[in-house]
From TrEMBL:
One of its GO terms (biological process) is protein sumoylation. PANTHER family: TONALLI, ISOFORM E, ZINC FINGER MIZ DOMAIN-CONTAINING PROTEIN. Pathway: Protein modification; protein sumoylation. The keyword DNA repair does not apply. Residues 119-204 form the SP-RING-type domain. Residues 331-346 have a biased composition (Polar residues). Residues 217-236, 289-346 are annotated as: Disordered. This is SP-RING-type domain-containing protein. GO terms for molecular function: SUMO ligase activity; zinc ion binding.
Length: 346
């Protein structure tokens, strides 16, 4: 047994219409001078998702011992009504077992509903794809459950649904978002038969209008052109089909200047009176790298396409430079052995 405190807006409250549990935004609850730590807000922007406050741990269960409760709220002009009930707690696992054994939709009834829905001769019915995964947890369904107020054949996991309701009391169908009740939840035997006859790796099946079904495998989802029916993200379409081959720009010259390094002589200056000799300084490794880089840059510059010639159309004939003067002839004098002199001009 537990003691739970319920709260709701007093305005418009009547004994004939349900009221969602809603606590003031700024409030404090104390039982026997001990503050109650509870979530008084529920889910954001979802009315009716607030759970009642549990007062059981702060109550002193003694005979003839009074318990005092103080509720303080502020920063609001609305009036609220509070009530405390003694309730019996039933776990989500117990409620799941009740659904499993009490409410059942037979397989023949499900097939008859499919055939009746597709019996219109003016409408050509096609197969529908049914997922074997829970729409909330995205794991394989173990207990296929759906409500009798829903018109779809897609089921959800009953155990997972009851756990969600225990955390936040939202009694909405995970498939169509209709409001459901605990009494309307039933186990679909047609869906359960599909789960029992398929391996755990199967995620979806195709259901025909007459109730027959077949397994959809990954290779069957591919179309004839090699693509697949799965949706692609927007970023998958960028740079996916156009492959650009980047050439190797590393330059490796064929004739690389390599010199063997030799130690310099002990004395760089020749002795007095001796002939001077040339000192050859070998290229260090850093100079060899700079020399190779200069050769590579010149080779890349030579491989580039020359830029187009620019012709200035604003220049007139009067601006032409004057003609160059003619070359002067060069006279060469040649002496023969007889002492005669001859001249030759070029």
């Amino acid at each position: 047994m537990r003691l739970l405190m319920y709260c709701g807006a007093a305005q418009g409250m009547s004994p004939y219409s349900p009221v969602d549990i809603a606590f003031p935004n700024q409030m404090e609850v104390k039982v026997n001078e001990d503050e109650i730590k509870s979530n008084f807000k529920g889910l954001k922007n979802k009315s009716g998702s607030t759970k009642p406050a549990d007062l059981t741990q702060k109550i002193r269960a003694r005979a003839n011992y009074p318990n005092h409760m103080t509720v303080t709220y502020a920063l609001t002009s609305r009036r609220y009504a509070f009530v405390v009930h003694m309730v019996q707690y039933v776990s989500a696992a117990t409620l799941t077992e009740r659904i499993r054994t009490a409410n059942i939709i037979p397989k023949d009834r499900v097939i008859a509903e499919m055939q009746r829905a597709n019996a219109d001769p003016d409408i050509e019915a096609t197969s529908t794809r049914m997922s074997l995964k829970d729409p909330v947890s995205t794991i394989r369904i173990t207990l296929p459950v759906r409500s009798t107020v829903c018109t779809h054949t897609q089921c959800f996991d009953g155990a997972m649904f009851m756990q969600l309701v225990e955390q936040a009391p939202q009694w909405n169908c995970p498939v169509c978002n209709k409001t459901v009740t605990f009494q309307s939840l039933c186990v679909d035997k047609y869906f359960e038969d599909i789960l029992n006859r398929t391996p755990k790796s199967v995620e979806k099946v195709d259901v025909e209008p007459d109730g027959k079904w077949k397994v959809i495998r990954e290779e069957e989802e591919q179309q004839s052109n090699g693509t697949t029916n799965k949706l692609r993200a927007s970023y998958d379409d960028d740079f996916d089909d156009d492959l650009v081959e980047v050439p190797d720009l590393t330059y490796r010259p064929n004739n690389t200047l390599q010199r063997e390094w030799q130690p310099p002589p002990a004395t760089l200056l020749p002795p007095f009176g001796a002939l001077p000799y040339a000192v050859h300084t070998p290229l260090p490794s850093s100079r060899e790298q700079s020399f190779a880089q200069s050769v590579a840059s010149s080779a890349r510059a030579g491989s580039k396409r020359p830029s187009g010639a620019v012709i200035d159309l604003t220049v007139s004939d009067d601006d032409d430079p004057p003609p160059r003067p003619a070359k002067r002839p060069m006279i060469t004098t040649t002496w023969s052995q007889q002492g005669s002199q001859s001249f030759r001009s070029t």
